Amino acid sequence: MVNILEPSHHVLFNALPFERSNAPVGYDNDWTYVAVSSGDKSYRLILDYVANHLRSSDDHVSFQLESGKKKSSRFIFFFGGDDDDDDATKKKNLSSVVAGLGLHAFEWESQTFHCLRQMVGTPVGTNCGAVYAENLVLFAPRRAAEPLLQAFVDQLVAAAEATTKGVYKLFRWYIRRGMWKDAQKVRARSMDSVMLPRATKAKLVADLDAFVSDAAETFYASHGIPYKRSYLFHGVPGAGKTSLIQAIAGHYARNMYFLQPTHPKLTDDGLRSAIEQIPANSVVVFEDIDALFSKTREKKVADSPLTFSGLLNALDGVGSPDGHIVILTTNFRHQLDDALVRNGRVDVHVAFDYAVAEQIEDMFAGFYPSERKHEFAVKLQAALGTRNMSTAALQHYFVTQRTKSVDEAMANVGEIVRDIDERLKDEEKTKMEEEAKEKEEEEAKKKLAEGEAK
User: Fold this and answer.
1) Cα separations (Å) of 86 from 73, 90, 92, 159, 251?
2) Neighbours of 286 (CB within 10 A)
3) How do beta strands 179-187 and 167-174 pair?
4) For residue 154, how many other CB atoms are within 10 A of its CB?
5) Could you please report the per-residue DSSP string of 269-281?
6) In a 3-state reduction of DSSP, which class is residue 137?
7) Is 434 helix (H, G, I), strand (E, B) or coil?
8) Would you say 266 and 305 are in contact if contact means Cβ atoms under 8 Å apart?
9) How far, in Å, CA of 304 to CA of 271, rounded?
10) How many beta carbons lie within 10 A of that of residue 152, not counting itself?
11) Strand 283-286 to strand 324-330: parallel, antiparallel, or no bridges (unpaired)?
12) Contact in structure between 247 and 193 (CB atoms under 8 Å)
């Protein structure tokens, strides 16, 4: 009988990393055992594998049910993606099961191992309440089997970090646990679907191609330069920064590691640890880098423990694995300290601006017959007049016109203008309300100060 439960027992030990009564029979007869801490990136991978490769369904084991997690691959589709993948059309599980507390016998490559998951020590207070520390112990029924157990763990980690062109995994840093956790599997949009000015995109792709080449890796190593490449994506919102990052991860078959440096509990040591734990040949993203410090290095997030020097050290990549593609994004490059974007720290600056004629034409050709793209661009630009339009706004228009003919889409360009005017009107209204509120607060403070003076 299989139980989905969390046993309440825990252990305290001195010499061995487990209580003898919890170990498999015969463990002391030339067996090899290794302990794995709950903070290690292999921990959840092992628990998942064990639950799905038990030696026998008759074994008395426990499982832990994790709600809200999908056991099968989960895909997010972006413009330009193909949605006919089998995994994408299957009904997804809303929970997953991993090995619970206790002893589990499982198989790997025709060999039987044991895994003991246990709570250790006494409860420790955290932001989430009192919790026990956890670890697991792997047992192999033979002497000097460390290489075998290591091969098992290495295989799990390698499989989890493996990439396929066009698909990547998005990882997020969990500060409380000090570990990376995969948030989702993403089907990336193609590089062709990213509507940058052609010359800008061609230059960027050429730079990336050169960086990922064997010749570049050899060059960096021979000159003692950290093998990484850093890019600053700057410019107006909705111009394609996020889309390009997704396309880069997919095109170069690299997983993405997303950092939120404004988190109020991210310290210098925590950020350094996060960077050091990112596997080689990954895409590392610092979004909205301007939200941390002003041009004069003053903190914009008052309760953030991260220092400016700590951020610089992380960007320099000292001690980090090779092959990182580091991407910083901002809508306000002029607010960045020069030291943050100097050569060597940021290698390439990529500007994102409002849509120009060639981008309008290229996007039109993705939805309608390309022979009319110039006609559409001329008509749209005439309707816009002096207004600016982002590529995100244009894509939104094409989505709203998805059931319309090309002639109808050409005739309805006035809808884009109306949307832009309404947005500008709302922004102006919001700005006036904020200014009025600030004025009221200042007057209230002034009256309070005058009253105290009397």
Assistant:
1) 10, 6, 11, 20, 21
2) 22
3) antiparallel
4) 12
5) HHHHHHHHHSPSS
6) strand
7) helix
8) yes
9) 12
10) 21
11) parallel
12) yes
Convert the pLDDT of each residue in 207-262 to its tens digit: 999 999 999 999 999 998 889 999 999 999 999 999 999 999 999 989 999 988 88
Q: Which CATH class is domain 186-352?
A: alpha beta
Asked whether the beta carbons of 291 and 328 are under 8 A apart, the reply is: no
Residue type (1 letter), 254: R
Amino acid occupying residue 179: M
**pLDDT on residue 79:** 31
- Most confident range (mean pLDDT) of 33-42, 201-210, 367-376 is 201-210
Residues 390, 396: Cα–Cα separation, whole Å? 10
Give the predicted TM-score (pTM) of the model: 0.71
Closest CA to 311 of 282, 281, 274, 347: 274
Other Cβ atoms closer than 10 A to 372: 17
Residue 68: Cβ-neighbour burial (10 angstroms; 0-12, 13-18, 19+): exposed
CA 207 vs CA 197, 229, 247, 347: distances in Å: 16, 9, 15, 10
- Residue 144 carries which side chain, given as an amino acid letter? A
* In the chain, where the domains are located: 3-162, 186-352, 354-454
Neighbours of 408 (CB within 10 A): 10
